[in-house]
Write a structure and sequence with these properties.
Helix content is 5%, strand content 42%. The chain contains 2 helices and 29 strands.
Length: 339
């Protein structure tokens, strides 16, 4: 059976991990580059924009979120069970450890830490807590964690992966089994599917989709009428879109972008993180880097670090910096747009 993305890449990172920290002082180290496929990319990003390394040495960087009020970037190292903080001019430091499961990690676990992060309207950190197999919130001042949901129909989630918070407080999230060893046959699994869910502010959990393998990155369109979903499935590397009605229920799915050709060409990575700018353009990580797409799926360009990019977010003082969690590093590139 072929190895999945996490088995390959986390293993590689474990062999090369160094002490995490700030990129070398002085001129930032740059990596990769931007490939332009369509002139419309010029309105989004300069094809010559440098991609600067902010920190490196992580086991598997994930889930970045920009905290506008604080002026921080938070991101996770999932197998390292840590949330890191990056501040302009000050570099990286540990924000929360453990980020997920506290105490000894059972042998049946693959990733004990938090994964995807978001911020709600009250300024609380919302996390997909892979180790605790839950959706949780964290008070940024006290670091106190509250479990919001850890079950559907009385059964434990697999290992929640990515979260996005709607303006009405609903939390959409995915639940593949990456956090468990032998994920498809783990004895810890209680659900026989990998779900996409909506958690309402009143605590009710709704299953929106349960037919996909490796549902991963998730994002909302600016008007919150479309839910984007990335499949980290090597047999079906796709970005999908679901219409949402006024109650948050999904309609008929459509294919936005098929990444099979990029995967077949040997480009590193699989579909994973998704971000959307205020114009509705989609930034979807996948084979080769960040695929910059129009709302209808036209490929404008690819932002590459030279290795797999797991997740991404917009942020920075003016909101125009695209932060990239890429394998064992976190990097950034300036854009001409913002979320």
């Amino acid at each position: 059976m072929p190895l999945n993305r996490r088995e390959c890449l986390v293993g590689m990172a474990a062999l090369s991990v160094t002490t995490p920290g700030l990129a070398a002082a002085g001129t930032p180290r740059t990596v990769g580059g931007v490939r332009r496929f369509d002139p419309a990319l010029d309105a989004v990003i300069d094809a010559n924009a440098p991609i600067e390394v902010l920190g490196e040495g992580y086991q598997w960087a994930e889930g970045p979120v920009w905290l506008r009020k604080q002026g921080w970037l938070l991101f996770t190292d999932v197998p390292g069970n840590t949330i890191w903080r990056w501040r302009p001019g000050r570099g990286t430091d540990v924000f929360m450890r453990p980020s997920g499961l506290a105490g000894p990690v059972p042998a049946a676990f693959n990733e004990a830490g938090a994964n995807g992060l978001a911020v709600d309207s009250a300024g609380r950190l919302v996390m997909a807590d892979s180790g605790n197999r839950a959706i949780a919130s964290v008070d940024l001042a006290t670091r106190r964690k509250t479990i919001l949901a850890d079950r559907f129909a009385g059964k434990r989630f697999n290992s929640p992966n990515t979260v996005v918070v709607a303006r009405n407080g609903a939390i959409y999230f995915t639940d593949p089994p990456y956090g468990l060893k032998d994920p498809d046959r783990s004895p810890l699994r209680e659900l026989d599917f990998q779900g996409v869910y909506r958690l309402d502010p009143d605590g009710r959990v709704h299953l929106l989709e349960g037919d996909h393998r490796r549902p991963n990155g998730i994002a909302l369109s600016p008007d919150e009428r479309t839910l984007y979903l990335a499949l980290s499935d090597e047999t079906r590397p796709e970005l999908l879109a679901y219409p949402l009605d006024a109650t948050g229920r999904t309609g008929k799915v459509r294919l936005v972008h098929d990444m099979r050709a990029h995967l077949a060409a040997g480009a590193p990575g699989l579909p994973d993180g998704v971000a959307v700018d205020r114009a509705g353009r989609i930034f979807a990580t996948g084979p080769g880097g960040v695929h910059v797409l129009t709302a209808d799926g036209q490929l404008l360009g690819i932002v590459s670090t030279g290795q797999a990019i797991a997740n991404l977010c917009f942020g920075g003082r003016d909101g125009r910096t695209l932060f990239l969690a890429s394998h064992d590093m976190v990097a950034s590139v300036r854009t001409r747009t913002r979320a």
